[in-house]
Design brief:
heterodimer; A: about 230 residues; Rossmann fold; three-stranded antiparallel beta sheet; 8 helices; about 25% strand; B: alpha/beta; abc type-2 transporter like fold; 16 helices
Chain lengths: ~230, ~450
């Protein structure tokens, strides 16, 4: 997946300012930045649910899985009914088989008959992700996927996502959690106020942070990252 | 689209309150309309107490007017509920069992007869009403006023008729009954004729005076001939010549059924489509669906289809329920679904446009309700009820919303003698296209994050 010069305005506000982006097959890319940085806007444009004002996106044709930040589920349908509906809409040859696969993958087999409205936020997020995976996408876009999950569920989620990347899928996720991005992202895109500040590995980001903000040398990565943003005027 | 439709139906089934309202609402409306129709409102229930002594008659000159059958006259105009006394009449009015009580006091005929004497008294009937609300008070006033006007007219006609007979007697002559004894009245015609025959026998010097008497008798006869129809007209000097300039209006019960069916169609379709579309946004599924799974146009078509199908079923159920109370024209039954389909289509498209402008189901439901109810009420405002400028504004406003053309289509479908259905169907088709376009444009906003 590749995007060039993406711009987007919400009224007077410039949400994206000519952002470039790319993700190779099997790569795990983290998009990090403070609130209002443009992370969700960028992911929505990459997912095709939002039109950019400028720039281009090249993605595997119709093969992008999208897991929005807020669970996009029908609360009055059961887990199984939600999965089956989207499997059918995705045009899966064997929708019931796909549902079984996702139930097993997310560990929700025993809750399959439960209404989504009665699930915890974490379990709803698991269903949300499972729906994003139904298309067996070449690129999976996840907007803050670990929000609302307990540590055990979070570990399980990242293990699962890592497995997808190992099988050749490009996985792009946004997060507020710098440690999470450092731990799971092979590459990081730093956004602030719609501007792309950095694109590289966690190690390269550490180096850049150390160079630009020597005063916080020895501080934890999150403190250094905040100092880096402030140094860049954000 | 099939899976989305099934999904929506399943969600609807899982929302017991919504589903119950969808079924209960038309049934309730059907029952209310049915009861209203089966209780013919043109004959209100009135407690009736006639205290006039048996055999009392209105006097006319030295005689009495024929018996008029007061009870029959009144009870043919209202649904009479017989009561034994004044207390019972009052109780029935207070309990709301009857709209009013009408009491004819024992001295009514005596007072009527006193009008032709030197000491006239005002004849009065007693009316007991329960004016618990202004609308009811107005209805009772109108009914009682109309009833008394009819009674006065009837009595005036009787008197005029009797007066006419006396005039005939004066002109043509005949027998007149005084205290049981017949008295011969010669009559002006005979007087003139007799005097004319006697004229040659009268001395010439006295003929001039006789001629004056003959001329008087002749002129009086001719002029009183003219007076008879004048007296008759006194009872009702102004006659009504009613000419309708509009298309024939449907019978009241058919119109009431059409209003009920259209209201049902409106609320079910509008609320369902608007709510269902808003639900996609509320549950964040809109972006997921339109991110490559279905086109926005297909999603819109699915929602409109859902609304039309639900509206059609519920409206036909309502009409079937009304059928228990009022005989509908089954020969036109094929037009009912046509009217419901076209009306439902326009209402569903309007619901989609509304659903695309609101962010959650509750807000859009409230918006739909707040829009539909006043528009429906405005659509029922007849011409002449408000000023011409305001009525023009109401016409324009109601023409922009599908309720009125849907009501016209439903009325045409139900009423065999009513206006044609083609005009309303064309109007609804235009509104469907316009609202669907608006909804399509508004749906673009849904993709915003």
């Amino acid at each position: 997946m590749e995007a060039r010069g993406l711009t987007k305005h919400y009224g007077e506000r410039e949400a994206l300012k000519g952002v470039d982006f790319s993700a190779a097959a099997g790569e795990l890319v983290a998009i990090i930045g403070p609130n209002g940085a443009g992370k969700t806007t960028l992911l929505s444009i990459l997912a095709g649910t939002l039109r950019p004002d400028g720039g281009t996106v090249d993605s595997p044709n119709g093969d992008v899985g999208w897991v929005p930040q807020q669970a996009a589920l029908y609360r009055r349908l059961t887990v199984e009914e939600n999965l089956l509906l989207f499997a059918r809409l995705e045009g899966r040859d064997d929708p019931r088989g796909a549902v079984e696969e996702m139930l097993e993958l997310t560990g929700l087999e025993e809750r399959r008959g439960e209404l989504v409205a009665r699930l915890s936020g974490g379990n709803q997020q698991r269903v949300n992700i499972a729906i994003g995976l139904l298309a067996q996408p070449a690129v999976l876009l996840l907007d803050e996927p670990s929000v609302g999950l307990d540590p055990r569920q979070r570990a399980r989620l990242w293990s699962f996502i890592a497995g997808l990347a190992e099988r050749g899928a490009s996985v792009v996720f946004s997060t507020h959690d710098i440690q999470e991005a450092e731990r799971y992202g092979q590459r990081m895109l730093v956004l602030a106020d719609g501007e792309s500040l950095f694109d590289g590995s966690a190690g390269e980001l550490r180096e850049a942070v150390g160079e630009e903000t020597p005063g916080v040398a020895g501080a934890d990565f999150e403190t250094a990252f905040v100092a880096f943003l402030q140094h860049r005027g954000h | 689209m099939r899976w989305l439709l099934l999904k929506d139906l399943r969600i609807l089934r899982r929302s017991p309150l919504q589903a119950a309202l969808l079924v209960a609402y038309p049934v309730l409306i059907a029952l209310l309309i049915g009861f209203a129709i089966s209780r013919d409102s043109s004959e209100p229930r009135v407690a009736f107490l006639n205290e006039i002594p048996e055999g009392s008659r209105i006097a006319g000159g030295n005689g009495r007017l024929p018996a008029v059958g007061v009870n029959e006259q009144i009870c043919s105009r209202v649904e009479c509920v017989d009561v034994a006394d004044r207390a019972e009449a009052e109780a029935k009015v207070r309990d709301g069992e009857v709209l009013a009580a009408l009491i004819l006091p024992a001295d009514l005929i005596d007072r009527l007869n006193s009008l032709s004497t030197l000491s006239p008294e005002t004849p009065e009937v007693e009316v007991i009403v329960n004016e618990e609300d202004p609308l009811k008070a107005r209805v009772v006033d109108d009914r009682i006023t109309a009833l008394l006007a009819e009674a006065n007219l009837f009595i005036a006609r009787q008197i005029a008729e009797e007066g006419g007979r006396y005039l005939d007697l004066v002109i043509e002559g005949g027998d007149f009954d005084v205290l049981g004894q017949p008295v011969e009245i010669l009559g002006l015609r005979a007087v003139a004729s007799i005097l004319q025959q006697l004229r040659p026998a009268v001395p010439e010097g006295q003929r001039a005076e006789l001629d004056r008497v003959i001329r008087f008798a002749t002129r009086a006869r001719d002029n009183l001939d003219v007076a008879a129809p004048l007296i008759d007209r006194l009872a009702q000097p102004i006659a009504v010549d009613k000419q309708a300039v509009s298309a024939p209006t449907p019978p009241l019960d058919v119109f009431a059924i059409a209003v009920a069916a259209t209201l049902t169609l409106t609320f079910v379709t509008l609320l369902l489509v608007a709510g269902s579309l808003a639900l996609e946004r509320e549950e964040n599924t809109f972006a997921r669906l339109t991110g490559g799974l279905v086109s926005r146009g297909a999603l819109l078509a699915e929602k409109i289809g859902l609304g039309v199908a639900a509206g059609l079923v519920v409206t036909l159920l309502m009409l079937a329920g009304v059928q228990l109370f009022a005989a509908l024209e089954w020969g036109r039954a094929w037009l009912w679904p046509v009217a419901a389909l076209f009306g439902g289509g326009a209402l569903a498209a309007a619901g989609a446009a509304l659903g695309a402008t609101a962010r959650d189901v509750r807000a859009v439901s409230l918006l739909a309700f707040m829009l539909a109810l006043p528009v429906a009420l405005l659509s029922l405002v007849p011409s002449g009820a408000v000023g011409p400028g305001l009525y023009d504004a109401i016409r324009v406003l109601t023409a922009l919303f599908p309720f009125k053309p849907a009501l016209e289509a439903m009325t045409a479908a139900l009423d065999p003698a009513g206006p044609g259905i083609a005009g309303p169907l064309l109007h609804l088709t235009i509104l469907t296209a316009a609202y669907a376009t608006l909804a399509r444009l508004a749906l673009r906003r849904f993709g915003s994050v």
